[in-house]
Amino acid sequence: MEFGLSDEQQEIKATAREFLASRFTPAKVRELAESGSPYDDGLWREMCELGWPGIAIPERYGGQGLGVVELVILLEEMGYALAPSPFISNAYAGALIASAGSDEQRERWLPGIAAGTARGAAEFTNEGGPVVGAAKGSTVLALLTDGGPRIVPTADAELERIPVIDDTRAYFRVRAESGDPLPGDVAWARAAGAVALAAESVGLAARALDIATEYAKEREQFGRPIGAYQAVSHRLANMLWAVEEARSLTYYAAWCADADPEALPLAASMAKARASDAACSVTHDAIQTLGGIGFTWEHDIHFFLKRARVSAQLMGTAAEHRERVASLVGL
Amino acid sequence: MDLTLTAEEQAFRDEVREWLAENHPGEPPAGGEDAQFEFARQWQRTLHEAGWAGISWPREYGGRGATLIEQAIFQEEMARAKAPRPANVLGLVMGGPVVIAHGTEEQKERFLEPILSAEEIWCQGFSEPGSGSDLASLKTRAVKEDGGWRITGQKVWTTYAHHAKWCMLLARSDPDAPKHKGLTYFILDMEQDEVEVRPLRQITGEAEFNELFIDGAWVPDENVIGGEGNGWAVAITTLMNERAGLGATAALGLQATLDDLIELAKRRGRAGDPLVRDRIARLKIAVEGLRLGALRSLTATMRVGIPGPEGSIAKLQWSAANQAMTELALELGGLEALRTDDSWSYRFLRSRANSIEGGTSDVLRNIVAERVLGLPKLR
C-alpha cells in the first residue's frame, strides 16, 4: 500500500508547476481575467504540445492513456496557478464521451479532444438550461440535462455568456434542440468530473494559503509580524488543516476512479464537498489575513475567492454532495 | 499511488487475523479494576509469546521489526477483532522506544524484556500542576548524591501509576541552566516509600489518572537515560512516538463511534432530518479525512523518514471529530443519553479531554504555525 505520488506522477507535477508558473504569471492571469476573454490560444497550444488535453484519454484515440490521478495532478497545479484555460471542460467532455459514448462517438470526437485541436466542452451545472465552461471555441458539447446525456456539435447550439464574478473562466448557457444521445452510463464520468474540479479547488486553496502565510510573515503591526499573533497563526493553521484534508480526500477519490469504481460515488462526494468548503473558507480567511489590501482590486486574492465561489456551485454543491454521503453511509 | 495491499501485506494481514481469531481472550472479567488489569496483563503475555507485543520494535530487542504499514494493519485487525489493549501500553509505545533510542546496552538488557512481557508496567511522569503545555518549565528537583539522584516534586496525569513498577520521569537536575537544558530523564522505581500515588478523580467520576507525590525518592545513576542534562531531547522522542502512532488507529475508533451515532439517529427517528444528515455526513468526511491523511503520512514517513504536513493535523482532526460526534449524540439521544449509566454520557464527558491530553489543540496549532508554515514565534 502506498498513498503518495509515484516517481512518474511527481515528475508530471513538477513539470506542471514549472510550466504554469512561467506562463500563467500573476500578471498574465490578471491580464486574461480583465480582458473579458480569459483563454489564450497560444498557451492552449503549448498545453497541447505537452499532451495534457489527452492525459486521461485512451491511447487508441490519441491520448496518453493515463488515469484520473494524473488528471487530478494537473488540475491541482492549474488551480494553484489559477490558470484560465478550457482544460477542465475539455477533459470532462472527454471523460463523458470515453466512458459513456458509442464506438462511433468516440472515434469521431475523442481524437480532437485528446489533441486539443477540436475541443470538447461539458455541462458544469444546470441553471435555466445547461451551463457549460469554455463552450465558445469548442467543437463539441457534452450535455447532461434538459434532454438527457447527449452530444451536440457546438455549431448547432446557441451560446449565451453568463457574467458571473469569476473572470478567469468563461461560462455559457447553452440552448440546443437535439443531440446525439450518449448510450452509456454517465455516473462514473460525472463523479470523476467532480473529483477533477475538487482538485482544482484544492490547488487554489493551497495557493491562497501560501499567499496569506507569506504576508503574515512580512506584514508588521504593533512592532512584530502579524503571523506571530495566535489569532492570526491559528487561523492559518486551520487553513492548512482544510487544505490537507481536502487534498487527502481528493487524491483518494481520484484513485478510486481509476482502481476502485465501486467506492467512487462516496469518495467523489466526500472530496467535492470538502474541497468546495475548503476553497471557500480558505480564500475568505486569506482575505481576512491580508486585511485592507485583500479587499482591493489591485491584490490578486479576489480572483481566487471568486473562482472558489463559482466552482462551489458547479458539479454539485457541498450540501448536495453531503446529502449523497448521508445516503451512502446508510441514513 | 496504490491503496490496495501488496501480496506480502495481505499475507501479513491474514496471519494477524487468523492468530486473533484463535487467541482472542474474550470479554474482560466483571469485578474490580485490578481484575481487569490482570486480564490485560495476561493478554499482553499471550501477545508477547506469539511475538506481537513490540510489533514496531527491532527484532534484536524482542520486537517484530514491522513496517509502519504492517503496524497499521495490525492495529486495524486488533480493532476489527475488538481485541483488548495490552496492559503495558506506555511501556510499549514510549518507554521501550526511548530505551532503544537513548539507553545503554545494560539498560536495554535490564528494561526491555519485562516491558514486552508486561511483567513490569511503566507510567509517565512529565506534567506537573504548574507545567502543562509549557512542560520545560517543570520544577521537580533532582539533586546529585553519591551513586544517584534524590528526587522531590509533584507529577500529575500519570496513567497506570498504581500498577507501575517504573516511571519515565523528567526532573530538573540543574536549576541554573536554561529551562530546556537543565532537565534529565530518569527511570524511577515506583516501589519505594518516598513515592505516593493518589488517584485523580475526573469529570467522568472515574480515576484513569493519578497524582504522584515524590519526597526524596532515589534513582541510581544507572537509571539515567541519555545522560545528565539531555532530558528534553529524550522526552521529545517519547512525545513524538505518542503522536506518530495516533492517526491511523484513531480513525478506526472514530468510525466505530460514527456507526453507533448513525444507529442512534435511526432509533430516535431522526435519520430523515436534513440537519442531522448534513452533520453526520460532515463527520463521515472528517473521519475519512483523518484516515486518508494518516495513510499519506505513513507513506511519506516510509519514503523520507518524516510525515508530511498532513501528519501534523491528525490529533486536531481526531479530537474535533470525536467531540462533535458525542455532542451530536447527546442532542439526538435526549435525556436517555444523559443518564449516568448510558455510554454516550460517558463518551461525551471523556471526549472533553481529547483536545487537552497529549498536546492541547491550542499548542498543536502553534506547532503547525511555527514548524509547518514557518511563521514567527510569539515568544
How would you characterize this protein structure?
The complex is a heterodimer of chains A (331) and B (379). Helices cover 57% and strands 10% of the residues of chain A. Chain A is of the alpha+beta class. Chain A has a seven-stranded mixed sheet with strand order 5-6-2-1-3-4-7. A two-stranded antiparallel ribbon of chain A has the order 8-9. In chain A, helix 9 (264-290) runs antiparallel to helix 11. The longest helix of chain A has 32 residues, at 187-218. The model of chain A has no long low-confidence stretch (mean pLDDT 97). In chain B, helix 1 (7-23) packs parallel to helix 3. The relative contact order of chain B is 0.08. With 379 residues, chain B is α+β, with helices and mostly antiparallel strands. In chain B, the strands form two sheets. In chain B, strands 1-4-5-8 form a four-stranded mixed sheet. Chain B has a four-stranded antiparallel sheet with strand order 2-3-7-6, with no helix packed on it. At the A-B interface, helix 7, strand 9, helix 8, helix 9 and helix 11 of A face helix 7, helix 8 and helix 11 of B.
Short characterization:
Chain A is α+β, with helices and mostly antiparallel strands.
Sequence-ordered SSE layout with sheet pairings:
The complex is a heterodimer of chains A (331) and B (379).
Chain A: H1 7-23, H2 26-35, H3 41-49, H4 68-81, H5 87-100, H6 103-115, E1 120-126, E2 130-133, E3 140-143, E4 150-153, E5 158-161, E6 171-175, E7 180-181, H7 187-218, E8 220-221, E9 224-225, H8 230-259, H9 264-290, H10 301-312, H11 318-328
Parallel strand pairs in A: 1-3
Antiparallel strand pairs in A: 1-2, 2-6, 3-4, 4-7, 5-6, 8-9
Helix pairs in contact in A: 1-4, 4-7, 5-6, 5-7, 7-8, 7-9, 7-10, 8-9, 9-10, 9-11
Chain B: H1 7-23, H2 33-49, H3 68-80, H4 89-102, H5 105-116, E1 122-125, E2 141-145, E3 148-156, E4 166-172, E5 183-189, E6 195-200, E7 209-220, E8 224-225, H6 231-244, H7 246-267, H8 274-304, H9 314-337, H10 343-351, H11 361-372
Parallel strand pairs in B: 1-4
Antiparallel strand pairs in B: 2-3, 3-7, 4-5, 5-8, 6-7
